[in-house]
Amino acid sequence: MSVTKEKKSELVKAFKVSENDNGGSAASQVAVLTERIRNLTEHMKNNHKDEHSKRGLLLMVNRRKKLLAYIKNHSVSEYEDLIKKLGLRK
Questions:
Q1: Is there a contact between 50 and 58 (Cβ–Cβ < 8 Å)?
Q2: Where do the structural domains in the chain lie, given as residue ranges?
Q3: Burial class (CB within 10 angstroms; exposed 0-12, middle 13-18, buried 19+) of 90
Q4: Number of H helices and number of E strands within the chain?
Q5: Residues near 41 by Cβ (< 8 Å), separated by ≥ 6?
Q6: CATH topology assigned to domain 5-86
Q7: pTM confidence score
Q8: Which residues have C-beta within 8 Å of that of residue 53, sequence separation ≥ 6?
Q9: Which of 27, 40, 48, 83 is the one with CA 20 to 30 A from 73?
Q10: How much is the pLDDT for 2?
Q11: Tens-of-pLDDT digits for all 90 residues of the chain?
Q12: Residue 50, exposed/middle/buried by CB under 10 A (0-12, 13-18, 19+)?
């Protein structure tokens, strides 16, 4: 259900902004959050009464929404590339 260390490091490597980025950039945070959201969505399909996980899912979705808004305000082209890579929206 959770994202393993290996999967997280793969995502950070794929979406890092600079050479020194160890997962702190907004783009890599969005990538990791997206993976966690996808895993938790699968969990919620089988456990629809799990209210605690549902709350956690909503918190993650809102955090990702805020980070995406930050990226969009900073650089629209970077935002569009990230959305396309992650398969979100459009």
A1: no
A2: 5-86
A3: exposed
A4: 4, 0
A5: 57
A6: Helix Hairpins (1.10.287)
A7: 0.90
A8: 40, 43, 44, 47
A9: 40
A10: 78
A11: 678 999 999 999 999 888 888 889 999 999 999 999 999 999 999 999 999 999 999 999 999 999 999 999 999 999 999 999 999 985
A12: middle
CA 18 to each of CA 1, 25, 35, 85: distance values in angstroms, whole numbers, following the listed order: 29, 9, 21, 17
- Pairwise CA distance, residues 14 & 62, whole Å: 23
Note the residue count of the chain: 90
Both tokens assigned to 17: 């902004």
pLDDT of amino acid 1:
62
Helix (H, G, I), strand (E, B) or coil at 17: coil
The amino acid sitting at 31 is: A
